[in-house]
Each structure stands twice: as C-alpha cells, then as structure tokens.
Design brief:
Intramolecular trans-sialidase, domain 3, mainly beta, Neuraminidase, five-stranded mixed sheet, 3 helices, 3 domains, 44% strand
C-alpha cells in the first residue's frame, strides 16, 4: 500500500508544476566603457569581502590598450552585494601627464591583485612604473639600499636612472607622513623630503612642475616622474595599499620591492587577480600573492613564478622559492592559487604550452613542485587564467572553478570549468561552460558572491571588460543569471484557479509524505 501511494504521489508531482513566485535578478556592469572618460579598460581583479561587498579592479588605459610604459592608472569599484550600486575610487594615479594623454614617457600603474585577511584588512598590490619604465625596460636591481637592517628607496639627481651605483640619495624613515632624503655616503640629511605618496619637498615647500600634455597645469613633483629633481631607479615596484573600512578609504602606499626583490633581478611584478589567505599548522594566518620575474639576464629571459607572503597581516613580507618549469611548459608567469585541503596549495599558471600548468606546495606557498601541464585544460597557455576555491561541495568533494581562453592558438573561446577535488588531490573537471565560443577572451577573474552565485570579470574584446553573474547547480552545471531584469526581488502574483488547486494538492502531498515518514 505504501508503495502504491508513493508511486501515485510521484506521478502527481511530475504532472503538477506551479510557480507561485518569479525571482528577478538585476546586476550592473562595474567597469563600463566611459567611466571616468576612459574607453579602454584591461586586467580585471575581483574579490568578495567578509561583509558581502565585492571589489573589482582594472587598469584605466584611457584611449589605448598598451602596457607600460604608458599613461595608466588603477580603478577600484565596490558594490555592497556584487550586483548594483558600484562606488568608484581611482586607487592609484600619477599626475606627470594629463589624463587621457598617450605617452610612453609617463609614469604608470599596471596589473593589480587583491585579498582580504581575517582582520578585515583588504590588500591591493599593483605594479608601479617610473617614467618610461615597463616590463622590457626594467634594469637589474631592487632600487633599494639596506640601512640599519631596513630597506630604503634610492634616489638620484641625474638624468640616468638605470645604474644603481650612481644613486647618491635614499629616503629615510617616515614620521607623521614625511621622510627626509639622506645622502648614501654619510647618511646626512639634505634639504629634500618626501610625503607618503612620494611627492617631493625642498626645505619643507612642495616642489612643482608643469604637467605634460596639458596647458598651464602645475603638479607636485614625484620621484616617479621624469621631470622631478630627484628620481627613483628604473624598475617595477610592488605598490601596496590597504583598507580597513571595506574599500571606502585607503592607506598611503607601501612599496614591498625592497623586501622581496634581489639586486640580480630585472623585472619582478604582481600576478594580477587574487591573492589567497591560508592558516599554518600553528594557527598563524598567511597572506600569499604570486609574483613573476624574468631572471637575471635581461627582459627576454624565461619567466618564472614565485610567491611573496606575510605572516603578520601585511607588516613584513618574504619571498618564496622560485619555481622550476617542467619540460614542455617552458615558462611560468601570471598565476593563481587554490587550497586543495590537507595542507596542499595548487598554483595554476600561464605558460608556453597548450594547456594550463599547475604545481603544488605542501609548505604553505614557500616552495613548489615541478609544473605539470593538465591535459584536461586545453588552453591558450600564454594568457592569464583565474582559479578559485568555492564553498560548494558536490558528492562530498570540494568544488573549484577555473576560467581561461580554451583556444590553444589564440586568446579566444573563453570557458568556465567546474572541478571536483579528490582525496588524492587530483581534480575531476566535470563540466565546461562555453562563455565566448568563436570570439575573443583574454584575462579573467572570478569570485563567489555572498548569496552563493558567482561573478566573473573578463576581457571579451580588446580593452573591454564584461561582468557576468552565474550559478552552479548540484550537478556542476553552470547557468547565467539574467542581468536584464529590472529589479532584484521576489514578485508575488495572483494565482489562477488551476494554480490554487495545484498548490492545495502540493501542500497535501507534503503532509502525506511527512506522515508516512518519507521526509
């Protein structure tokens, strides 16, 4: 009898389907063309904060799409929920050239990565480039000198910024937002000083200069500018800011390069996207970002990825061991890390093969094994990829997501992959969502929103960033959330007579199932 009732109820439930509410989800684009008058945006970063807000970051490239050296700034946008009401901050900005002027002699910012520690502090690291410097222009050296055990930024009064031995000055310790400029030879104080943004002063008065590319505009001199009286070394600087109020306000910059770059290296830059936070065996929280360099033989050397990490909430930083690419991978550069559990971290990296490559760490990101090409992840290897942990599980297995250009021949055919982490740390890629089949796809970054949906920022055409919200169901299938509906709400509607009858029987079925012990 029980089986008969169960069968009848199952048939009835299949035949009677009713919707009593219609859910409509609306979301806005955080990085629109035209924001701040900028038509060309690149290099997305995306992260969900502890309070449910979402921060996105991108390069403001004005009317060009070129890398540094050029006129580039960093835009931050924060939404309270990852859907709407994005609030903007130009996080990193140089004034040596007027906004919108394309100029390879400009100081610039490029590439950003973001993470939040358990204290609520948000960290953003970008590459800061002095005037005319960029990836292929970096000189060998850190641009820092060690005085009393601490790194200090070197400065020169000359026009040549490519030889550290010619730098006769350095920036001293900061007090109340200002630091003196001292002589390397005898540590004596000069008439110069800098503020926390590295703007220059002489005898306490601001030093100014004409802004290039504008008429009659005067700006504060900065040690990153070509026309400044004192200039920094020509290399890439890891420029960190932090926020303790969910991105409403930001700290003065902290330059990490002197702590983590050797004097034998040329370029050392941040891997754009996201950092990761993990917990050591003794309970210490570790913040990790990935960085990459081009060795000590020049800009055209093979690139290798490593990490920088902090165990004291971003006060001090150390450099991890440089990775060694395996045969067939060729190089590693822009990378992202996921936590596979059990003390294993996995780094997925841009490389020279036709697949995404990965390497594992069992010492919390200090050192890494050999890189292996994952033949289940066909890709344009020479392009940034995004991989993130999620809170989801399927069949008791952790779910991770990956997004990348899946066309080995070009930056095209963007996909999102759903992976299940096995007990032996292998990953089963159970589904593939084709995002931009037959069309352009380059850099991307994903995040899990507070409501369990996911956001992805991705380059869907040259110098244009698109935002998409999607969901992952219990089988690992991906569906796009409709961003064109007018409101985010549940809309109640008047039921028809038939819908009222269906609702009555659905309620009755529930009560019978509960009475029979089925639920």
């Amino acid at each position: 009898m029980k089986k008969i009732i169960s069968s009848l109820l199952a048939i009835f439930m299949i035949l009677t389907v009713a919707t009593v509410a219609v859910a409509a989800v609306d979301y806005d684009q955080p990085i629109e063309r035209g924001t701040y008058g900028v038509s060309e945006y690149r290099i997305p970063a995306l992260y969900t904060l502890e309070n449910g807000a979402v921060i996105s970051l991108a390069d403001m490239r004005y009317d060009h799409g070129a890398d540094s050296p050029n006129n580039i700034e960093i835009l931050a946008a924060v939404s309270p929920n990852g859907y709407t009401d994005w609030k903007y901050t130009v996080l990193n900005h140089f004034d040596d050239y007027a906004d919108g002027v394309t100029a390879t002699a400009s100081a610039s910012f490029i590439d950003s990565a973001v993470v939040q520690s358990s204290t609520g502090r948000i960290f953003v690291i970008s590459d800061a480039q002095p005037a005319g410097c960029g990836y292929s222009k970096c000189e060998r050296g850190s641009g820092f000198i060690t005085v009393d055990g601490k790194p200090h930024m070197l400065l020169t009064t000359g026009n040549s910024t490519d030889e550290m031995s010619s730098f006769d000055y350095y920036i001293g310790d900061f007090t109340n937002g200002y630091a003196p400029v001292l002589k390397v030879a005898d540590n004596s104080v000069t008439e110069y000083s800098v503020d926390a943004e590295l703007n220059l002063y002489k005898n306490g008065a601001p030093m100014t200069m004409k802004q290039r590319g504008s008429e009659g505009v005067v700006v504060h001199q900065n040690v990153f500018y070509a026309d400044a009286a004192l200039k920094c070394f020509c290399t890439t600087y890891l420029w960190m800011r932090y926020s303790d109020d969910n991105g409403a306000t930001w700290s003065s910059p902290v330059i990490l390069t002197g702590q983590v770059k050797t004097d034998n290296e040329y370029f050392l830059g941040i891997c754009p996207g996201r950092g990761i936070v993990t917990t050591l065996d003794d309970g210490t929280e570790r913040i990790i970002f990935t960085v990459y360099d081009n060795g000590n033989i020049g800009w055209n050397a093979v690139e290798n990825v490593s990490t920088i990490y902090s165990d004291d909430n971003g006060v001090t930083w150390k450099r991890g061991a440089e990775t060694i690419p395996a045969m067939g991978v060729g190089k590693t550069s822009e990378s992202q890390i996921v936590d596979l559990g059990g003390g294993t971290l996995r780094m997925f990296a841009r490389n020279s093969s036709n697949y995404i490559a990965y390497a594992d760490s069992t010492d919390y990101g200090v050192s890494w094994g050999d890189f292996i090409a994952d033949e289940n992840l066909n890709a344009m290897g020479n392009c940034m990829c995004s991989f993130i942990n999620t809170s989801k599980t399927i069949g008791g297995k952790k779910v991770i997501l990956g997004s990348f250009a899946s066309n080995p021949a070009s930056r095209a055919d963007g996909v999102i992959k759903v992976g299940l982490v096995n007990a032996n740390k292998t990953i089963d890629w159970v589904s593939t969502y084709k995002l931009t089949q037959g069309s352009f796809f380059a850099y991307s970054c994903m995040t899990e929103l507070a409501d369990g949906n996911f956001g992805i920022l991705y380059e869907d055409e040259a110098s244009h960033i698109e935002y998409l919200v999607f969901s992952v169901d219990e089988n690992g299938n991906i569906s796009e959330v409709n961003g064109n509906d007018p409101v985010t709400e549940t809309v109640e509607k008047e039921l028809t007579v038939w819908e009222k009858i269906v609702k009555f029987f659905n309620d009755l079925i529930f009560k019978i199932q509960k009475f029979l012990g089925f639920i």
